[in-house]
């Protein structure tokens, strides 16, 4: 199911990061007077790697994946495996390292053509909001094209090769334009950024333009002034559905969204490991191989 080359590639990338990060992180914990993390048979890089492998394994449940696959078929790759209950405890200790690895090593680069959008991450059915205790006071009600939901929003910026440039998690009631107003979210961007009509804002356009980013969106029908959209911009606006394909893969293949939440830490661990796994995927939605549309674009120009 999982090739040895893929496992080795993922582990080596994570292990190189952990060798530099883990010693400084543990020293920081001690200097702040916090309890040191208890030593485990599994290394930090192995703990993170197993979580990432789950999202590309095809399994729908982490417990089944760990007990029926890792514990039986990956004992040579992970010779010091622990019990499932201990593994669940260790997952929570990898929260900060996994987040920092994803932000520093696990994302793609900007190519000058970027797409932005958000998708809802439901933590429970809207009829069970008052019964949900895990995210009480943390998750919020929000609205999307499919109606009201309870949970969070995943905002991502992708390039034309299908790679995720950056992401942000917000409560469900945060407006889609809010992350674009934060310097940390747009620091890697340049060139043109394509979004839907929800990102249409004169102030946002001016702020992004001052940072070297040209925001391109479709105009609303009730707008009096309508500018002529260049052919190239119109082409990429039609191809903005690439980000919807990425969301579909994140939810249906990499399981970034689920309702089996028992703790906040492991919930976000699941999201981080899913995003890491996606960027290790061999095939991503891409506009680079769309030769027919590219030729048509040249003819129009």
From TrEMBL:
It holds the Pfam family DDE_Tnp_1_3. Residues 108-263 form the Transposase DDE domain. NCBIfam families: transpos_IS982. This is IS982 family transposase. It comes from Flavobacterium sufflavum.
């Amino acid at each position: 199911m999982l090739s040895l080359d893929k496992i080795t590639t993922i582990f080596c990338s994570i292990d190189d990061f952990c060798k530099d990060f883990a010693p400084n992180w543990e020293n920081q914990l001690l200097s702040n007077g916090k309890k040191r993390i208890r030593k485990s048979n599994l290394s930090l890089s192995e703990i993170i790697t197993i979580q990432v492998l789950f999202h590309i394994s095809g399994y729908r449940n982490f417990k089944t994946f760990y007990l029926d696959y890792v514990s039986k078929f990956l004992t040579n790759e992970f010779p010091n495996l622990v019990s499932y209950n201990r593994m669940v405890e260790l997952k929570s200790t990898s929260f900060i390292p996994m987040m920092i690895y994803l932000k520093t090593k696990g994302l793609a680069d900007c190519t000058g053509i970027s797409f932005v959008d958000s998708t809802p991450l439901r933590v429970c059915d809207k009829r069970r909001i008052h019964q949900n205790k895990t995210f009480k006071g943390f998750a919020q009600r929000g609205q999307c094209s499919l109606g009201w939901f309870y949970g969070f929003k995943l905002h991502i910026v992708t390039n034309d090769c299908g790679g995720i440039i950056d992401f942000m998690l917000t409560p469900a009631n945060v407006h889609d334009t809010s992350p674009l107003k934060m310097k940390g979210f747009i620091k890697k961007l340049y060139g043109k950024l394509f979004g839907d009509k929800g990102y249409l804002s004169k102030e946002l356009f001016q702020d992004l333009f001052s940072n070297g980013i040209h925001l391109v969106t479709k105009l609303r029908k009730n707008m009096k002034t309508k500018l002529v959209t260049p052919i190239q911009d119109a082409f990429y606006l039609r191809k903005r559905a690439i980000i919807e394909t990425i969301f579909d893969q994140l939810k249906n293949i990499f399981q970034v969204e689920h309702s089996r939440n028992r703790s906040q830490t492991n919930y976000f661990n699941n999201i981080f490991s899913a995003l890491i796994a996606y960027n290790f995927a061999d095939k991503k939605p891409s506009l680079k191989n769309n030769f027919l549309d590219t030729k048509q674009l040249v003819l129009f120009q």
